[in-house]
């Protein structure tokens, strides 16, 4: 099982970056969980690659991605090379 780094994005959304996981989608992306739902979203575009979460939560997630897109891409690059990502602030 792959190791991951977890962020609290906002309002119950949990964002995961998996270490050394760049083979499945071939673009920078994050895994996001909300309750029992999960979605995989590209960064920095915010495009859904797989899964779904409630529409209202998706809008919050996309706002967070837009605010932190450079940080997310940099953290994804660290994670896929096996390095510890930096903390990213939640949406307030």
UniProtKB/TrEMBL annotation:
Cross-referenced InterPro entries: DUF4160
Record organism: Chlorobaculum parvum
Name this protein carries in UniProt: DUF4160 domain-containing protein
Pfam families for this protein: DUF4160
Higher taxonomy: Bacteria, Pseudomonadati, Chlorobiota, Chlorobiia, Chlorobiales
